[in-house]
Amino acid sequence: MATLLHIDSSVLPASASASRAVAETFRKAWEEQHPEGTVIYRDLATDPVPHITADAHSAGFADPSAHTSEQAAAFAGRLRLIEEFEQADALLIGAPMYNFTIPSTLKAWLDNVILMGRTAGENPSAKGTPVTVIASRGGSYAPGSPREGYEYVQNYLRAVLVDFLGLDLDFIVPELTMAPHNPAMTELVPLFESSRERAHEDAAARAKTLAEQLAA
């Protein structure tokens, strides 16, 4: 059975987080298709991975037999994350927008997983693995919107996940999530509700499609 690697990075609980809520819809649909499958779950807000250190970074470019004890210890943590990433048949990542980009905890996970010559480079080890990113945001940064130029979540993740890691990327974007809480955005509440509904529908459909493809 297929293995799903599910990563959440929102600092908010599920009741207040759009990315967590939509990711949960995806996961439930996935588990309905794979009741005996495996889900590896990482909550980077409650259990963050270490930000990459000089030892962990330099160890990635050195022969393991030449590692210092500090490099070996630091690289062991990276290796666990890399192997977890490589064994997944599909990835689900909750990536809310914080100050125009991804949470630092998600960046730390990516810094640990990206290893040139293995997960990244000419022949990335997880090439072709489908990844669904729930890219929630409080406003709208869609093409044509006033803040289009501030969109650094999808642009960055496309470069990293597709160009570096060779993954098959699909975005689901629940937007305007601050509309119900910000009086200045009251007129945008119907658009928020439509975006939320569409995101949940897309998440369920995407999970079922991937599950069927992997089971074929």
TrEMBL record:
Residues 3-173 form the Flavodoxin-like fold domain. FMN binds at residues 10, 17-19, 97-100, 136-139. InterPro entries: Flavodoxin_fold, Flavoprotein-like_sf, FMN-dep_NADH:Q_OxRdtase_AzoR1, NADH:quinone_OxRdtase_FMN_depd. Signal peptide: none annotated. Its EC number is 1.6.5.-, 1.7.1.17. HAMAP family: Azoreductase_type1. Also exhibits azoreductase activity. Catalyzes the reductive cleavage of the azo bond in aromatic azo compounds to the corresponding amines. Belongs to the azoreductase type 1 family. This is FMN dependent NADH:quinone oxidoreductase. It comes from Streptomyces griseoloalbus. The gene is azoR.
